[in-house]
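tool_log.txt
---
The assistant was asked to compare two proteins side by side. It first ran the structure predictor on the initial sequence, then on the second. Raw inputs and outputs are pasted verbatim so the downstream comparison step can read them without reformatting.
(1)
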Amino acid sequence: MKNFEISVLDLAPVKQGKSIHDTFQDSLSLANYAENINYKRFWLAEHHNMASIASSATSVLIGFIANGTQKIRVGSGGVMLPNHSSLVIAEQFGTLESLFPGRIDLGLGRAPGTDGITAQALGRNPAIINEQFPRQILELQRYFSKENSNSLVRAIPGEGLDIPLYILGSSTDSAWLAAELGLPYAFAGHFAPEQMEMAFSIYREHFEPSKQLDKPYIIACVNGTAAETSEEAHQLSTTLFQAFLNIIRNDRKPFAPPVADMDDIWSPMEKSAVLQKLRYSFIGDQSEIEKKLKDFQEKFNVDELIINSHIYDHQKRLDSYGIFRKAMDSLIIK
């Protein structure tokens, strides 16, 4: 088992009884805590029209987090590129990199990050997405290059800056693209586990070295809920279960506090569907987390694990990331 890095995915979760201002302050608090205990990066994900997630203006929020931290890398996990002009994203992230040199990541996805009606409001054309997304990535690379200085269209700021690109995915399509372009690859195992193993295999087998990367680099995103006891961790995880149950029911309200028994809320069919989607959720005390991390790494051999934590109580969410850090430290091969 090789060593691997550990990072944070934050969806800027909006909780019942809390304001969006509270959400952003909690995100900054988490970023500061993650930085202090040596997490590698802190990513925020673009979503729209969801009462439970406040990271719609992703680049603005990245700036807020980067400004309130000192060294941790901050970026998008990801920006849903077909929702935007490539030039605008180049300018936004060029601005961020100019403000916070050497700390900004640009993770890119092709999904809308929302429902179909909202996707239309964002101006997406589903008929051309599959050809538009790879073309936009090449546009971004051109805008960031020094060679683009003679072009009629330039990204100012952005041009000549070293802003690493990452391909995000939840299917094998993204694995082929990341391999072809020679870019690092992050898979959304926290909500789409079905094709993760196959996607990693495709990416490794077909990877072509590039200017950015000479060998494959794989990030797996998983859910994580850790606590002092296994019983507490499983109770805290009912917030995560309720969030996914609400998605199944198309009831995307703010995140709810934990409950004593999920069987009072979901049907057997709903339970099966939620647990299938949450296959890669690490729930338990430190010893259980250590074993689950070890088993996962022995199977997937990733370069980095990025953890998404749906925990209602902010301090317990911080504590969970602290327990994951301790579990990771115990596994590191000296």
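(2)
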Amino acid sequence: MSDVVLLVVTGLGLGALYFLAASGLSLIYGLMGVLNFAHGSFMVAGAYAGWLTMTGLPDSLGVGVRMAVAIAVALAVGALIGFVVEAVLIRPLYRRHIQQVLVTVGLSLTAVAAVQGVWGSDAHPLDKPAWLAATTDLAGAEVPNDRFLFIAAALLLFGGLLALLRFTRLGLVIRAGVENRTMVEALGINVQRTFSVVFAIGGAAAGLAGLLAGVYANSVSPLQGGSMLIYAFIVVVIGGMGSLTGTAVAAVAVGLVQQLANYYAASGVGDLSVVLLLAVVLLVRPASMQGAH
């Protein structure tokens, strides 16, 4: 029984991390129709911003305080980069999807090369509080505490995004702008500014995901954004392109399948199982590639 509890909770924690990585991707595509292949570079930016903050602050502050500040910095850096990328690169290319893909892929490759040029290709260890590295007994299973952090962060982000879209004026403008941008602009509302905010929110979510992925791996590296981006795309496709709720459900499914397959089959089989899950979804529900709101 303890093994099952451990697998389920760690699987939920991994799924929560995938949701953090995929939520911004899903939000940007669902509301703006932009398939952002540079999303991984947003995660790398957040991870390195957090790492630099952790190493730059004095040790006397304590690891917990430095980690809290690093999370805030990762969110801010991700939001800023998302805002700038939308304004400079994406805004001139709305409705030109091929060019969007080429530009965002090029940005992703350039970002990795820049990080490697400045900080090298090796992984850099990331400090974390002792309580985060410890475990908690749950029904006889020793569950790593960082999984609870991932789950809590994912729940807060999911609830916050749903509340933003459904209960705020900004969310109303976003949804109306997606449905009929011309009509909303005729009412004197700056839809373009609203879309810039959406990109910034997606970037902030990516920055947080990047830093927490570093907590999961105990280090940050230039290539971690690319590996997380693969799972983020898988989650978004399985959940339905642009569906935030579908993305959350898919992230949980992917995390659980990966953990259970790695344990009950063999190490590495989990990745294969995720790909097979994606293939099954595309065969049964090919419309998932076309968007689900």
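---
observation on (2): The chain has one domain: 2-225. The CA atoms of residues 85 and 292 lie 25 Å apart.
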